Amino acid sequence: MGCQNAVFIYISAFVMAESNQTSNLQEFQLHEKDTGSADVQVALLTSRIEHLTEHLKINGKDHSSRRGLLKMVAHRRSLLDYLSKTKADRYKKLIDKLNLRK
């Protein structure tokens, strides 16, 4: 008897919904399959930074997340510095779209 009669039924198929993050990335992509350009990386980092900032407002003593936040901010800053030195027009468009400079 035992496991011979076991039946596994999947209620629904696993479908990955398109999140707002992926739809927002399409405006920063240089071409259809662009996932690694500096523009896209800055956009991803900005959304993660915003999310983590909200988390740290609630959880003030989460020092490991604060360290990760600082690393992400530094990485975004270096990507923005690279863009400003090499592609000034893309840099200006990016900071306008993301509202990074106030």
Report on the structure:
This protein is mainly alpha-helical and about 100 residues long. It has a domain at about 60-95. About 60% of the residues lie in helices and about 0% in strands. It has helices at about 20-25, 40-60, 65-85, 90-100. Helix 2 (about 40-60) packs parallel to helix 4 (about 90-100). The chain is globular and about 50 Å long.
Salient structural properties:
single chain; 102 residues; mainly alpha; 0% strand
Provide a brief overview of the structure:
This protein has 102 residues and is mainly α. It has 4 helices and no strands.
List the topology elements.
Elements (H helix, E strand, L loop, with lengths): L19 H6 L12 H21 L4 H24 L1 H11 L4
Number of helical regions = 4
Envelope shape: globular
Number of strands: 0
H and E string: HHHH
- Please report which band the strand proportion falls in: under 5%, 5-15%, 15-25%, 25-35%, 35-45% or over 45%: under 5%
Largest sheet: none
Percent helix, as a range, is: 55-70%
Mean pLDDT: 84
Return residue spans where pLDDT drops below 50 for at least 5 consecutive residues.
12-18
Structural category is mainly alpha
What is the gyration radius calculated from CA atoms? 20 Å
